[in-house]
Design goal:
Layout: H1 2-5, H2 11-19, H3 26-37, E1 43-46, E2 49-56, E3 61-65, H4 69-74, H5 79-86, H6 91-98, E4 100-101, E5 107-108, H7 117-121, H8 125-137, H9 143-159, H10 182-191, H11 194-203, H12 211-218, H13 234-244, E6 250-251, E7 256-257, H14 260-348
Antiparallel strand pairs: 1-2, 2-3, 4-5, 6-7
Helix pairs in contact: 2-3, 5-8, 12-13
Length: 362
């Protein structure tokens, strides 16, 4: 960054300086780069090629060709062309070229008054050319200066917030689906700094939960004591981690500092514990209805037995009652028949003659 953006010894500063020299060429530009910046160790020339130079970036050394560097950096239009576009009948073109260019290269269109449009169009091309030349007398911003200002503004905005970056990796040169070129992907990962980020993340304490969040999530891993009755503190977090067998961690004033793989270990143990809890719940939930069903089945069996015994007793009693009733009926019938026979016999037997009484003695 310092090699490109520093003033007055940065590459963009030297590019702007050469752009304002009428006789400057790409060869003189590369020669200035090499003479002024080769001492940094990041920039070097290419032997036999006066327009080539190389820069050692983070990902590796890149060779640049300085062709058209000065022309592209000036990015200027001829005054008569600018005057012609300023007098255009298309309002958006007229407003754009009558406007100003910000320090970051953005165009600030001029608000055109419709009432004065006809008057402006009646101006002569010479008037437009003279105004354009007078504006050109002021040193305009080059592309390099606009880029430097835009980059400084972007850095300022990024430092004021918490940006998140999305890295897009091409699987192959042709962007074909389901085809990954390993070397091509690894090169992109190395150039974007993802491998270095991964190494730093692996060696540092990238996971830093607060005590309360850590205890709320992993308190179930504590083998002794009830976490619900304890206050979230460094000692409680250390007890949970020691119970889980985790080492190489640190506790601060309000946070726990963990390696990235500590979370994998804790999550794996938590998943295992959750699976065991779910298994115990399923066993208990299956045992409870089975036990209830067994009790109901045993009660029903007892009721059936009691009902069978009651029915057997009723049958025995009924049979005895029937036998007694039949016996008594037979006895009554026999007695009734005997009485009838005795009546008939009495009816057939004549009544005896009564004997007169004897005379009383004198």
């Amino acid at each position: 960054q310092d090699l490109f953006l520093d003033r007055p010894v940065g590459l963009l500063a030297y590019l702007d300086e050469e752009s304002f020299f009428p006789r400057a060429t790409e060869t003189s530009l590369v020669a200035k780069f090499i003479s002024k910046c080769s001492s940094t160790g990041h920039l070097a020339g290419t032997p036999g090629q006066d327009r080539l130079f190389s820069i050692a970036h983070y990902a590796g050394r890149v060779v640049y060709t300085a062709d058209a560097f000065l022309e592209k950096n000036r990015d200027s239009l001829a005054p008569d062309v600018v005057a012609l576009l300023q007098s255009s009948g298309v309002s958006i073109i007229e407003a754009s070229f009558l406007g100003e260019v910000s320090s970051t290269g953005a165009i600030i269109p001029l608000k055109v008054d419709p009432a004065s449009t006809k008057t402006r169009r009646r101006r002569s091309m010479a008037d437009h050319a003279l105004k354009t030349v007078s504006k050109a007398a002021k040193r305009p911003l080059t592309i390099g200066a606009q880029f430097r200002n835009s980059l400084a503004l972007m850095v300022e905005q990024m430092e004021a917030c918490s940006p998140h970056f999305v890295r897009c990796i091409k699987p192959n040169l042709h962007k074909a689906p389901s085809h990954f070129v390993d070397d091509f992907v690894i090169t992109q990962l190395r150039y974007t700094g993802m491998l270095e980020t991964t190494r730093i993340r692996r060696e540092g304490y990238s996971v830093r939960p607060r005590f309360e969040d850590f205890v709320a999530r992993y308190g179930a891993l504590l083998r002794r004591g009830k976490v619900s009755k304890m206050e979230a503190s460094a000692s409680l977090c250390e007890a949970i981690l020691q119970s889980a067998g985790v080492t190489d961690f640190h506790c601060g004033r309000t946070k726990v500092f963990l390696k990235y793989w500590h979370m994998d270990v804790l999550d794996t143990m938590l998943i295992t514990l959750t699976s065991c809890a779910v298994l115990l719940q399923s066993i208990f939930r299956a045992y409870r209805p089975r036990r209830t069903h067994a009790r109901i089945h045993a009660a029903a069996h007892r009721q059936r037995q009691q009902a069978a015994e009651l029915l057997a007793a009723v049958r025995a009693t009924s049979s005895a009652v029937c036998d007694l009733t039949q016996y008594l009926s037979e006895q009554d019938t026999a007695r009734h028949l005997a009485e009838l026979e005795a009546a008939e016999v009495a009816a057939r037997t004549p009544a005896p003659t009564p004997t007169p009484p004897a005379p009383a003695p004198a």
